[in-house]
Specification:
By secondary structure, the protein is an alpha+beta fold. Helix content is 38%, strand content 37%. InterPro entries: 26kDa_periplasmic_antigen, SIMPL/DUF541, UCP029033.
Length: 244
Amino acid sequence: MNKNIIAVAVGALGFVLGLGFLGNAIKNRNKSENTISVTGLGTKQFISDLITWSGSFSKNNFDLKSAYDGLAQDRKVINDYLLSKGIKQSEIVFSSVDIQKQFRSYNDTNGNYVQGEFSGYNLTQTVSIESKEVGKIENLSRNITEIINRGIEFTSSSPSYFYTKLATVKQEMIASATKDAKERAEKIAENSGSSLGNLKKATMGVIQITAPNSNEDYSYGGTFNTSSKEKEASITIKLEYEVN
């Protein structure tokens, strides 16, 4: 009989403890679901303070030395021209010379492609400029026909624009996006008759840099526009708060 009483008591205690654990689990589950998740946006417009530009020039000749000498003469003309436009010598970088053998090709009577006789050497070199004088290099890239008019086969590329203080811009946008997200969360809680509790989680998106008022697509890994001097950067911050 005593054994039966003890068994009943132990069973009753287990039942009470089980109810307690179940109640805590339900309470904790409801507490974890009682949260607000919001996304804030931070944006900033700025103008690039660094520009890069490059162009290539070439020379053709049956004799390799003659082709190289001709290319060297063109290189000097280009270098002197850039210096005359106020470009610093330290900003002018010439690449190594690329040498390609050329062959005169044709299709035979059966329509088969035939690589014919040697037709000379083609030598190509690239000149690059990196400068913080954005306006000056922009004007240079637009008026490069002055080099072509001197008898040089020169091909100019489009300038690329960068910003050297991007780290500061990113910090400002993060602060702005965080403030925006918190204000949104506070407004949601206020409208529902609640108040914000502790911040549970914060997730930062990738920075997206595009041309202002453009239709450029954002990418998962981040977009970095280099074709526009004027830029607009944006970043998102997702915050998750407990609600009291």
